[in-house]
Write a structure and sequence with these properties.
homodimer; 188 residues; alpha/beta; Rossmann fold; six-stranded mixed sheet; two-stranded antiparallel ribbon; 11 strands; 29% helix; 36% strand; globular; transferase (chains A, B); cytoplasm (chains A, B)
Chain lengths: 188, 188
């Protein structure tokens, strides 16, 4: 998506070779009209898949996932990072955050992920793929069909996408980065 | 907002006299088209105030705040609950969560809250008012003008709104609850 690549080039801040901050429109401050356009674009790529629900994880995935769900006219469920009080009523998975260097449990109420669902996972970033693997694990537990994942920005060099695609999973990305360093970003 | 009251009556789950779960459309699963209508309604109540930015706190405030910001055609910033790496670049405030019985620090990058802003705070719930007071504190630190707050559901009996209104703050609520118990919700 050219508009996204342009904004990453204009506003993104590369720290070292692995961290990209896009907090002017995606991760801290949100540009709601732009988020809506990105949501529409991701929704269109999965049109015809019969999606019945969008799944994301709090917090920064929520805005774009809501935009995708609005376009697809389906509900969105966001996995929570705090332990739920009644564990029997939720699907749970452990995810490791390389950014925060901690493991957190994400949970989704079973009632919001019935086995006859067709689920589209949406997230803002795909890097090592830990969050995405956790969400896939939860969909697997539910018995629902996974249509694939839609990602705003993928950092290809951190390999999370490659591992999941190798298993046959469809992943659509609006901007995929081959490599980067301060002042320079190479898109795929 | 009658549609919201109807959905709270139909789908809300009251636990004891203080906890209202509305996770079918607001807190865990999100109905994006309904969120958009609620955002439009809150935006209309603050039309003419010259709002330049919407402020909320992660995670469940993000969807409705994005909808309000979309209607007002301004950006939204969500306060983060994790400590930022560079404290000098952020405004910070401590908030106590009665639900989770813990104190967390919320932060907003100074660059997203300039002193000439006119800020509208948006959140999904107003109960004891801890999160709202923390957001007000951050706006005060920034020197920006606070236009007020727009809230989806207010639990009047927990008094957070009364304390802030007594200081002259404008708070608009889409559904205000006087009292409740399982099977019975009295709206103001």
């Amino acid at each position: 998506m050219q508009e996204l690549k342009d904004r990453i080039m204009a506003e993104g801040e590369v720290i070292g070779t692995h961290i990209l901050k896009v907090d002017t429109f995606l991760n801290h401050q949100i540009d709601p009209a732009f988020i809506l356009r990105m949501g529409k674009e991701l929704a269109e790529r999965f049109a015809g898949e019969g999606i019945t629900r969008v799944l994301t994880v709090e917090a920064s995935g929520i805005a774009v996932a809501s935009a995708v769900a609005l376009s697809l006219n389906v509900p969105v469920v966001f996995a929570k990072k705090k332990k739920a009080s009644t564990q029997s009523a939720v699907y749970a998975s452990q995810i490791y955050s390389f950014t925060r260097q901690e493991t957190v449990t994400i949970t989704v109420s079973k009632k919001f992920l019935p086995a006859d669902d067709v689920v589209l996972i949406i997230d803002d970033f795909l890097a090592h793929g830990e969050a995405l693997k956790g969400l896939v694990d939860i969909v697997d537990q539910s018995g629902a069909r996974l249509a694939g994942a839609g990602i705003v920005i993928e950092k290809l060099f951190q390999q999370g996408g490659a591992a999941l695609r190798a298993k046959g999973m469809r992943i659509e990305t609006l901007a995929a980065i081959e490599q980067m360093e301060p002042g320079k970003i190479d898109f795929a």
